[in-house]
Amino acid sequence: MGFQGGGGFNRGPREMHKATCEECKKECEVPFKPSGDRPVYCKDCFSKRKNEGR
């Protein structure tokens, strides 16, 4: 038996939560519940920021 991850009970797709991208202000969905204390980025802005070495 290998490690399955995800707590073992979440077999379906990840629950997505609506958020607004901090950079482009578009509505997007993220696989975590935004807590409000950290900025949220859409996947386009996130990958741009990641590629900039931030």
Question: Could you please describe the fold and organization of this structure?
Answer:
The chain is α+β, with helices and mostly antiparallel strands and 54 residues long. Helix content is 17%, strand content 15%. It has a two-stranded antiparallel sheet with strand order 1-2. The mean pLDDT is 83.
Summarize the structure.
By secondary structure, the protein is an alpha+beta fold. The chain contains 1 helix and 2 strands.
Low-confidence stretches are none
Give the distance, in angstroms, between the N- and C-terminal Cα atoms.
37 Å
Q: Characterize the biggest β-sheet.
A: 2 strands, antiparallel
The radius of gyration over CA amounts to 14 Å
Topology diagram in text:
Layout: E1 17-20, E2 27-30, H1 43-51
Antiparallel strand pairs: 1-2
List keywords for this structure.
single chain; 54 residues; alpha+beta; two-stranded antiparallel sheet; 1 helix; 2 strands; globular
